[in-house]
Structure formats: structure tokens, C-alpha cells
Amino acid sequence: MEFRPTPVNWMVLGAMGAYVASALALVAGALAGRGRAGGRAPRVLWAPGWALYAAGFAVSLAAWLVRWHEVQHAPLQNLYEVFLTMGALMLPISLFCRRALRVGAEWADAVLAAVVLFPVAFVFNPEPQYLPAALQSPLFVPHVATYLAAYVVLGKAFFQAFWCLVRRPAARVGETLVGGSASLERATYAMVCFGFPLLTLGLVLGAWWGKLAWGDYWNWDPKELWSFVSWLVFLAYLHFRAVRGPRSPVLGSVLVLAGTACILITLLWANLSRLFAGLHSYAT
Amino acid sequence: MRRMRAIGLWVTLAAVGALAALSVVGTFRGAEGARALFTSEPLAVFWILLAVFLVACFFFGTGLLRSPGLVAMHVGSILILVGAMWGSDKGHSVAEKLLGRKKIPHGYMMIPEGAATDEVADDATGELVGRLPFRVGLKDFRIEYYPAKGPWELWFGMPVPPDHAPQMGWVPIAWKEGEEVSVGRTALRVRVIRYLPGARPVRGEAGEIAGAAPDSRSRTPAMEVDVAVRDREFRGWIFVPEGEDRASLSLAPIMPKDLSKEAAPNLWLVQPRGMPKDYFSDLAVLEGGAVVAEKTIEVNDPLGWGGYHFHQADYDHERGEYTVLSVRSDSGLYAVYAGFVLLVTGAFVRFWVERARVGWRRRRSDGVQADAR
Questions:
Q1: CATH class of the domain defined by B108-144+277-329
Q2: % of chain B at pLDDT higher than 70
Q3: To probe the interface with B, which of A198, A208, A227, A243 has the most B CB atoms within 10 Å?
Q4: B131 to each of A169, B82, B119, B314, B330, how far by Cα in Å?
């Protein structure tokens, strides 16, 4: 693990700093607003957090565009570019979730953005690579981008589910930052409902592309199988929630955590481990 | 009714859990092991039961019919399962027994340039598995390469450009600026005096190219060489014009018809090849000796003809003189595609559109109640 001083990596470092600072400022703002009418601090307390969050987004978006210019194709080819993209996706998804789904806790989103950018700056190889023939497809960008959006959304669902499970020991602070148990359960469900169609679309676009590139829409490749397992776990959660409603938040949360763990395996282990060598091994 | 829903839930969760557990087992077995597992007879029974269960969901009061999105997702899943079973090896044998329709489920074809064949070989063993009712011919095969980084290659040989692979007539020269090197088994010695990675021409009084000068905006190089054969010596520039990927310098002043009776050999400065960018096969489909279809296929753009798809799978890595096509029957494929469309559309309708509509109605009714108060 070492920092490789490329222009993109310097920008990533800057974005990480802004994201961490924004998380701290947003937490401080939320805690300062505790007990106030409406539960929200004055603008002067939360605005700096949002400003830093926006700054982190602007810098990571700029890094993403510079990378695009460097490699001359949409930077979605390998883990370096995929994590860089996820770092730039977080703010738009946070804003959409707040406005359309009434799901907040943006400080956690900022932490998640900093976490996904960390391996970009310190772990993954920044060397630009040419696109192999199989990746030169009109389905390359939609397939990968849809999956990344789904992963970011379901990463947010993971956070809600995690707080739903650990809510009791951290009740006072936790409820200030993320809301009560009922709202956490509803937020988890809302996030999964938002992310699951994207996960489905990513899976199906991949299958269609596999048919065009390799001849079969399903090749039983380890990465394909892990992505299918992720989809199945969230499918199980949605069936469970359809019948049980919000009455079993713990079991529901466990399923969401399991689904997110499968996503991590799909995204990282299936690519990095020699155990799962297959058709997707180039994406490291 | 509630009891039926609860039973339905647990059966669903058991089926999904079993499929997830089997998929995890499959990931550790590799693609071939997973394929063998999921196409085994016990699993064929599982797939059929799963399809039957999905159909049964419509009849046992699970509330499915109230949601167009859920209907689409379930119908889509059924179509995918049925299409996949129909397109499997076992599906092909069942179709042959029931309908008398013989079709090769999958295999590959190896076709040399200028030849045509109807033979399909087994993916694993390479043995002949059957013949197509038409022939597929390869008119031409070509590879595009990315430019490689680093200094350009220097070759010695014929007055026609070398083809990157060492072969009769051309010899690669392992050059280093300032060092004299011998060229293969010839008496020729070459010393690279200067190599300019980006260069522009310097013209003489008559407008001819007399040399080169460094130019950071240029993407093509120039090389000044000193060439010697026994007591004869000659110095010159190889300058690559902008946009070209090779240039030559005739060695006629020191090697007149020395190696070839027809023309003097050349020194070639050639852009190095990077990794392959894409492969192209110009295919023709022949029925009764007549060409009935033509297409240039590449990776991601196959040819579809006569119930089969032909995908660019591999090629002759040494000389690029033959292509390897993967052949796939399209049985069941369009049912699977229809299932994909329904599954995705249903997911968006169910979890985005229907949820948004419920939320909008709720907000509207909250507003009406607030107005009434």
C-alpha cells in the first residue's frame, strides 16, 4: 500500500479530505440540532458540512473527468476506475435520496465516499490500460454504471440496516443522527427498493452483453455467480418484507447486510482472488 | 389466505436460499464445474419445480395479480427459465425426440482464409459434433492493434514492410543509440546515431528530406543510422511522416542486389504493436454454392443465420490466417430475451413507479385531511 503521486491521485486525496471534513461537520450540525424545534440546527451549523460535501464531489468529479481524458474511454474498466466513479456518484445519490425518498444521514454517505476513494489513492494500480476487444461494446458503460449506482444505493441501505441492528446501545446519539427504529427500517426498505431494479438491470445488461461477446448469456463465471447471489439475497429480503411488513426489522436488516457482503465479494474478492479466476479477471 | 401467503413466503425463501447456496458452491468449482452442477439432472428437476412454483404463485392468492410490476417480474422469470431449458443441451435432445428437429446446441468452427466449411466441433474435445445445413466461408481475417509505448522497432529486410513476427526475409535489430550491432547472420552492421521520438523533416536545397529535427508536437519519430557492410559505409535518416506507422531507408548505396536479385534490402522503422484492439472476420454464408449472406463480424457483433449465432472467439495467433468462431443455437434465446425485458421492466414498475404512486396518493390524502381539519 503506497500513495502514487499522479495528478488524479492528488485530486482523490483532496476529495477524501473534503468528504471526511464534511462528515465531521454534518455530524456536528446534527448533534447541535438535537432537542431544537424541528430537530434541525440553524443553517450556519449544517451548511459548512454540505459545502464540504459538494467540494468533495466537485474534486472527485474533476478527477474522474481527468482520468477519462487520460485513458480515452469512460473510466469504468478496472477496480481503480470503478472505485473512482463510485466516489463521484455519492453526492447525486444522497441528494436524490433526501428529496425523493426522505432518507438522510449524508454524513455516512460522505464517510462511504472517502472509504471507496481510499484504495484508489493507496491500493489500486493507476496505470492506464487499453480496452480489450470484449469491452469495446455499447453495453460497457450502461452495464458497469448501472451496477455502480446500484452498489452505492445498496451501500446506503447497508448503513441504515446496520444502524437498525445496533440502535439500542447507541440509542441517543444514533437516533439524532439517523432516526428511530421504525424510520430506519423504512429507510432500509426504501433504499433496497431504489437499488434492486438497478441491480436487476445491471445483471440483465451483463447477460445480454455476455451473449454478444462470448456467445452465451450465462457462463457460470464466478463473478456472474456472485452477482447472482447478491441479487438473490436482496430478492429474499423483498419477499420477506412483502409478507412481514416492517414487523421484523432485525431479520430484514440481517438479509440486507448479507446482500451487501455478497456485493463486496462480487466487487473485490471475485476480481482479486485467484480462487475465482474467470472471464472477468481482466477487471482488476 | 394469510396462511397460504405465509407458506408461499417460506417456500420462496427456501427456493431462493437453495439457489443462492448452490451458486456459492458453484463459485468455488470454477465455470466448468458450476455449469456441470447446474445442468445436472437433479438440478434440472429443481429448475422445473421452480418454474412450476412461479406459475403456481398466480393461483394461490398471493396478491401478485394486483401489481402489474410483480406480474411482469414473475412472467419474465418463467420465460427465462423455460427459454434456458429449451436452449440447453437436454432441451435440444428433447426437441429432437419430440419434434424430429436436429440442431447442434453449441460448438466451434475453425475456418482458414479463403475456405468454407459446415463442420462444427465440440467446444471441449474438438471432435466433430455435426454439420450445419449451410456452409460458412472466411473471405478475410484481420487484427487491429493498439500502438505500443516505447521506441519504434528497427527491421532489416525486404523492400516490403515486415509483419512484426520474425520470418523469412526480415530480421529484427536490437538497436541501442550509439552502439553498433550486427544484423543476424549478414555482414551488415548498424549503428543508431540519433533517435528522435518526435521529429519534423529538415529539407535540403532541392526540397528533399535531408534530415530531421526534434519536434515535441510530432507523434512520429526519425532515426539517423550509420550502416556498414565490409568496407562500404553509408549514413542516412529514416523519417516517418505524420500519420504513418512505418518508413524505410533503401540500402542500395552499399548493398546493391546483395541479398535479393530483384531489389536492394531496406531498413524499416516500424511502430511497435501493442495488445490487439479487435479482430474482424469477413464471413460469407453459402447455400448450394451461392452466397446468401455476408457480414464482417467482430467481438460483440456476431452473425446470426439459420437458427445459429456465429461469434468471433479466437484466431491464428501466429500468422492470422484462420479464424475460430463459436457457434451457438438460438433455440429458446428470444424467450430468454423477452424474460429479461419483462423482469427489468417489472422491477422498475414495481419498486419505482408503483411505490411513487402509493407515496403520491398518501401525500394527497394527507393534504385532503389537513384541509378538512
A1: mainly beta
A2: 92
A3: A243
A4: 70, 27, 5, 20, 16
